[in-house]
Amino acid sequence: MLTGIHHAAIIVSDYAVSRHFYTELLGLAVIAENYRADRDSWKLDLLLPDGGQVELFSFPNPPARVSRPEASGLRHLAFSVDDLDMAIARLTHAGVAVETTRVDPYTGARFTFFADPDGLPLELYETIS
Q1: C-alpha span between 9 and 22 (Å, rounded)
Q2: Is 113 exposed, middle or buried (0-12, 13-18, 19+ CB in 10 A)?
Q3: Residue 82 belongs to what domain range?
Q4: Measured distance CA(66)–CA(28) in Å, rounded
Q5: What CATH number should be reported for the domain holding residue 88?
């Protein structure tokens, strides 16, 4: 029945800052960018290399979401990368704090966590072909 994840939608507090973060730092391509005057809101559709998408939404004064480790709900959004060290170097060069690299005890794959401008936990997971 399900064939994959089509997109993840993220509400951001500062549209310009998050747009820069996801397009310039993470390298996601812009599919479409629309201003919705009736909502005073931007909607930015971004393309992942595998065809998946990330949608960014802005709204006036969005409430903060409780985001603590191990809280109920979405834990984090994980992106696959071919070269974890190169991805970490790019983020740290841009001033993004990245956690220490870990190893998945079940797959042996390396991964790390960092946060977007709103503190949303993101993961980089190294996939080995």
Answers
A1: 13
A2: middle
A3: 76-129
A4: 26
A5: 3.10.180.10
